[in-house]
Amino acid sequence: MKGLNMDERNDDITVGISDSQEKPHVPQQETRTNSAEHQGASIDQPIYTSQPQQAAYDRFMYEPIGFEEPGNSVTDNPFGKKIRKKRTGRSEATAVILFLTLLVAAFSFAAFGIVSDLRSSDAALERLAAKKPAVVYRTPKSQDFDDDVMKLDENGNYSIKGVSKLVMPSIVEIFTYENRAEYNAGNFTGSGSGVVITDDGYIVTNAHVLRADGFHEVSTADGKKYAAEIIGRDVKTDIAVIRVSGAKFTPATLGNSDNAVVGEQVIAIGNPVNLSFTVTDGIISAVNRKIRSDETTFEMECIQTNADISPGNSGGALINLKGEVIGITSSKYVSSSYEGLGFAITINEALPIIEELIDHGYVKGRFRIGIQLIDMSEPSKIHLIEEELGFDLPDGFTGIYIDSISEDSDIVNTDLKPGDFITEIDGAKVRTYTEFYNAITINYGAGDTVPAKCAHIDKDGHVTYYNIRFRLIEDTTGNY
Question: Do 469 and 414 contact (CB within 8 A), yes or no?
């Protein structure tokens, strides 16, 4: 063996190999002497050390032929050959278990978070809802809205919105009760409208809205309520005045109805079918209409309009675009001949009556005869008379049928009886209420005695005529 050097150093052996071939690592033998119990024997026995000694290379031979692969562990076997230590399956299983454990932990944490969010979401939403009220977005009212509404055009007229705002505080709703007890119980028998005409509480309305011996309450547009007393009522014209004491009001401005023209735009404010403070608009369809009341058959000068006027509107206002009241609306000045049309008593016709009622409580000079009558102005009324008599009227016969006579009248003391007719007043033939009323008022007044021609008709159609004289009684009740 060439190039072999051996030094004995502390029982370690270093082997140097000079040639390029790798020499096998041979475990060194160690000679041991047996212990005392084997004394006398000189047997030398080679034994391997418990761990083979690691071979070391000289510096100049640092890198032998061949290199270890990265990540692999190389150990020497007792025979000097390098053997590659294989990676065990235990480490791979450990890594897989660790990965699965982390994955399960991650999913568990995520599931816990989701469940917690779901449990707390309802409570969170409730807290948000309690702390933050719902917000509705809308366009804010213009600061100039009120000014724009109340602006006048070049003709000095308001818009419909302007007129409504201007006059609404002067319109009231009137509730009629049979008595004070019914008022306390809240049982009203009817309702209507009214127009405030003075700041100290005088209100004009229709007579048919009120009850002569009832109790009345007034409600304003701002929701205030007041008890009201009747100052005066005139059933003939369907105009009445009530008053609320101890309060201040905004009065309406009364216009001149003679200036009303056909086609002019108007509005009506009232309380139809308990729909408080309703505004309807339209135009003036006609002026100077002579319209007769359904109940009294008294004729009044009216303005015709297509603005809706229903029973609840009675006593309300017909207003032009200058904000002036030019008429008092009344559902009673409508008959079957005028269905679907609206009428308002002209303010010029109503004002003298209003002033009389305020000053005296009744219309001075108003008289009553003390009779209930049916005229012959329409075929339907003639048919009604014939039903009352039980037979047909003679051909060509005309007159005013007397349905009843009041016991406190002067005419009850004459020969006139219910079922008879008045055919003439002071020589003028009468067959309609207007003819009858005009024939009296043209020459006579309260306290005067009026001559009249009357007739009685038998069942066989025979007519008997006779004359009477009766005195006109001044009416202070407003019921006639």
Answer: yes
User: Residues 389-446: pLDDT tens digits?
Assistant: 999 999 999 999 999 999 999 999 999 999 999 999 999 999 998 899 899 999 999 9
**Distance from chain centroid for Cα 319:** 27
- 81: CB partners within 8 A, 6+ apart: 24, 25
- Kindly report, residue by residue over 22-40, the tens digit of the pLDDT: 444 444 444 444 444 444 4
Say how far residue 397 (Cα) sits from the centre of its chain.
60
Measure the CA–CA gap between 140 and 345, rounded to whole angstroms: 42
Structure tokens at 281: 């608009």
What pLDDT sits at residue 349? 95
Rounded alpha-carbon distances, angstroms, from residue 287 to 260, 284, 296, 316, 352 = 7, 7, 22, 18, 19
Residues with active-site annotation: 208, 238, 314
DSSP 8-state code for residue 337: G
**467 neighbors 388 (Cβ within 8 angstroms):** no
DSSP string, 268-319: EEE-GGG--SEEEEEEEEEEEEEEE-TTT--EEEEEEE-S---GGGTT-EEE
- In this prediction the pTM is 0.64
Helix (H) or strand (E) holding 123: helix 89-131
Q: Which helix (H) or strand (E) holds 326?
A: strand 324-329
Rounded to an integer, what distance in angstroms lies between the CA atom of residue 121 and that of residue 383?
A: 82
User: What is the rounded CA–CA span in Å between residue 254 and residue 454?
Assistant: 45
Query: What is the C-alpha separation between 378 and 448, in angstroms, rounded?
Result: 30
Half-sphere exposure of 372 (CA within 13 A, CB side): 9
C-beta of residue 414 within 8 angstroms of C-beta of residue 468: yes
Nearest to 383 by CA among 370, 361, 368, 401: 401
Q: How many helices (H) and strands (E) does the chain have?
A: 7, 25
Query: What's 178's DSSP letter?
Result: S
Q: Distances in Å between the alpha carbon of 211 and those of 233, 292, 294, 476?
A: 10, 22, 18, 16
- What would the pLDDT profile of 297-327 be if each residue is shown by its tens digit? 678 899 999 988 877 788 999 999 999 999 9
DSSP state of 30: B
3 state DSSP class of 461: coil
Among positive and negative, which fits the CA dihedral 139, 142, 148, 149? positive
Contacts of residue 393, Cβ cutoff 8 Å, sequence gap at least 6: 382, 385, 386, 457
Q: Which residues pair with 139 in a beta bridge?
A: none
| Residue 473: predicted pLDDT | 92
Distance, in Å, from the CA atom of 453 to the CA atom of 455, rounded to the nearest integer, reads 7
How far separated are the first and last CA of the chain, in Å rounded? 165
Instruction: Find, among 348, 352, 249, 344, the residue nearest to 306 by Cα.
Output: 344
Beta carbons of 452 and 467 less than 8 angstroms apart: yes
Report the alpha-carbon distance of residue 132 to residue 122 in Å, rounded. Answer: 15
